[in-house]
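Minimal example, chain plus 4FV.
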Amino acid sequence: MKVDIVTIFPEMVGAALATGIIGRAIAGGRLDVAVHDLRDATTDRHRVVDDVPFGGGPGMVLKPEPLFASVEAIRAARGEPAAVILTSPDGRRFTHAEAERLSRLPHVVVLCGRYEGVDERVRQHLATEELSIGDYVLTGGELPALVIVDAVARLLPGVVGDEQSVARDSFARGSLDFPQYTRPAEFRGLGVPPVLLSGHHREIERWRRREALRRTIERRPDLLKDGVRDRDDAALLQELLEQREKGAE
Ligand code: 4FV
């Protein structure tokens, strides 16, 4: 998969992409990421990328010309992208399902906003979609771009060592994760659920599904509104809901 990121802080984005699992995936050629300095797409001596908002008001707005020129240069050098994503708080919420959808695309461009945002003509005539990572305002679109690239990269073949861990991701099964424990088996008098030390893999898997569903019912019942995909999960969910009913009585 090819990803092109347009930003006024290429060093910030580059640094984050050079570490850990994502850094190894890029070094190993499993993901092809190019970071572009928006100022390189300017034509004036001061490499200006922003200007005051028409109609007045505080702050600055990213100008259309550098962003259009930057994407046109990417098209010429790296081919036509399947999507030009603008990260903004006004966008559609970025979710696991969105990450799965993007991970199936051959090439995407991500535009990182800054200041008060981008000129509306960028949103209307350059970006093909807008994604938000949450209902809060950041100083820039770089962190959202990195969140998106990280979540998508994990879904690409060979990026996460054990595909198993991706397959059983939270949200991949429509639920939150199950409690995890590691050594020591006793910490400050705090133990570990015996089933996890039992070696009974079916029992352990069943316990994990039940605890994942229990946590989902407690914290994110909205995730269960369309029920659960897995038949065993449905039985477990029924059992847990009945227990909760009894508990509530
Ligand atoms: C944001 C978000 C976000 C808004 C103004 C960048 C900032 C500045 N992007 N999800 N939340 N962007 O706050 O994606 O341009």
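Residues 62 and 118 are 5 Å apart (CA to CA). DSSP finds nine helices and seven strands in the chain.
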